[in-house]
UniProtKB/TrEMBL annotation:
<dbReference type="GO" id="GO:0004519">
    <property type="term" value="F:endonuclease activity"/>
</dbReference>
<dbReference type="InterPro" id="IPR052892">
    <property type="entry name" value="NA-targeting_endonuclease"/>
</dbReference>
<feature type="domain" description="HNH nuclease">
    <location>
        <begin position="73"/>
        <end position="122"/>
    </location>
</feature>
<keyword id="KW-0378">Hydrolase</keyword>
<dbReference type="InterPro" id="IPR029471">
    <property type="entry name" value="HNH_5"/>
</dbReference>
<protein>
    <submittedName>
        <fullName>HNH endonuclease</fullName>
    </submittedName>
</protein>
<dbReference type="InterPro" id="IPR003615">
    <property type="entry name" value="HNH_nuc"/>
</dbReference>
<dbReference type="Pfam" id="PF14279">
    <property type="entry name" value="HNH_5"/>
</dbReference>
<keyword id="KW-0255">Endonuclease</keyword>
<keyword id="KW-0540">Nuclease</keyword>
Length: 151
């Protein structure tokens, strides 16, 4: 089934269950680098389904998905979607941050990534959002530095 807004023959995100592993137990993922070079790798079935559901990839066939963004395109997409506004302090942001850090199992998908200013991104590090925000509230000097950036 082709979804509206998806290239002809491409399955919609809700069709992620169509994906089946190859004999290796993995799914093939294809994409392009920032320089336009094609690449291919094999990934876990559940990760492939997640990437399709979160609209970071489309299904090519039952064993293959294709990433929709190069790294540069993905960063630009997130920054423009969030209007270059830091998710945490509301200031100008030009980096992307994972809400659930990659170190804790988060993936680079549109739903898990937000625009962040460099200071908030560095301060958050590999903490999840709740830990980061509670530490900012407990440390008034950190909260005041975030407030100063808003001005």
């Amino acid at each position: 089934m082709t979804a509206p807004g998806f290239p002809q023959g491409m399955a919609a995100p809700e069709d992620a269950q169509q994906l089946k592993p190859m004999r290796s137990g993995l799914v093939r993922m294809r994409g392009k680098s920032d320089k336009g070079r094609r690449w291919q790798q094999e990934i876990d079935l559940e990760l492939a389904r997640l990437l399709v559901r979160e609209k970071a990839a489309v299904i090519v066939n039952r064993h293959t998905i294709r990433r929709l963004f190069t790294n540069r395109e993905f960063k630009t997409f997130i920054l423009e979607r969030d209007r270059y506004t830091c998710h945490f302090c509301g200031g100008y942001g030009d980096t992307i941050d994972h809400l659930l850090p990659r170190a804790k199992g988060g993936h680079t998908t549109p739903l898990n990534c937000v625009c962040a200013c460099n200071a908030c991104n560095q301060s958050k590090a590999d903490r999840d959002v709740d830990d980061f925000l509670s530490s900012v509230v407990k440390q008034p000097e950190a909260a005041s530095s975030i407030e100063q950036k808003k001005e």
